[in-house]
Amino acid sequence: MEVPLNHIGVKDPKRKSMTGSKGEPMESDKLLTTREVARYLNVNEKMVYTLIADKGLPATKVTGKWTFPLHLVARWVANQTINYPKPQDTLPPYHGLIILCGSNDPLLEQTISLFNRRNPDHVAVFGNMGSMGGLRALGRNLCHIAACHLLQEEDGEYNFEFARQELRELPAVVNFCRREQGILIAAGNPKGIQSIRDLGRSGIRIVNRPVGTGTRLLLDRELIGADIEAETIHGYDKEFSSHLGAGLEILAGRADAAPCIRAVAGLLGLDFIPLRRERFDLLIRRNRFFDPGIQLFFSLLHEPSFQQLAENLAGYDLSGSGRMVFPGESLPPETKA
């Protein structure tokens, strides 16, 4: 179901929107109010609350009242559609090019470089689009592999339900690593930041990751748990597309904190407040799983050269790397990175 944005008059005065090539706000950055989503779905406002509770309508209270990410609502509508058509466009047969899209990660970037050095007859390229962007690219057959770390709210599992909703089927899932997520702060912690609650203090400046990234999803969940309204945090709407970019803002003194991974703290000599260990997976459509380049890339995850890359970065656990992951199945116990 597609509804032109100008038919519903969507505006979000609280956040700066990302823009596309024509200066139009991107769909992934749109937040609908209850009234707007009711108009979008052609139902009354009371029915909206029923759809949240009974039908899983995507919604968030991170601003203190219900808002609805437009791209998730559109996907929810598509998932309720009977006889939904399968995508007609497919990736061409494998000819030496591997396209990865999704979440930004320093170890993944170094692994792609290692793969390209080791395999001159193959090329791996990466599109930094965030976890949800990677899933959408996989769903539209724009890439071979999606890199994701999307935490499922109801059970603490990662990626499977998001993939089921986006792809309408479960892909093959291979663990890349486990890594430590948390709050990046300046060396020596001059602002005395101890927990997520301190981000709501007066005088604390943060920078953020974009909507659709797993890191942003985790931050929003933590803010809800701490009963902090995101719009009250200075810099919440200042977004950076990479963990390193967010870290450099703190290093330069332009921000006091950022949601980030421990690896960047180690690279930049910054301090770090851990929030959780997360699973970072690579998702592949099952019909492309045995493509020669895909298997060659996954085989690299079992080699000492890959492990050596992680040893030079902080916060990684490789005990499950290269293993297929299934819903409800636990990876091996964590080892210290």
List keywords for this structure.
two-stranded antiparallel sheet; single chain; 2 domains; alpha+beta; D-Maltodextrin-Binding Protein, domain 2; 9 strands; 7-stranded mixed beta sheet; 337 residues
N- and C-termini, Cα separation: 45 Å
* Count, helices: 12
Q: Note the beta-strand portion.
A: 15-25%
Please describe the biggest sheet, giving its number of strands, its sense, and whether it closes into a barrel: 7 strands, mixed
CATH fold annotation of the largest domain: D-Maltodextrin-Binding Protein, domain 2
Regions with little confidence, pLDDT below 50 for 5+ residues: 1-26
Task: Give the name of the CATH architecture of the largest domain.
Answer: 3-Layer(aba) Sandwich
* Net shape: globular
H/E topology pattern: HEHHEHEHEHEHEHHEHEHHE
Describe the structure.
The protein has two domains: 5-79, no CATH class; 97-327, D-Maltodextrin-Binding Protein, domain 2. It is 32% helix and 16% strand. Residues 1-26 have low confidence and may be disordered. By secondary structure, it is α+β, with helices and mostly antiparallel strands. The protein has twelve helices and nine strands. Strands 3, 4, 5, 6, 7, 8 and 9 form a seven-stranded mixed β-sheet that branches. A two-stranded antiparallel ribbon has the order 1-2. β3, α5 and β4 (123-128) form a beta-alpha-beta unit.
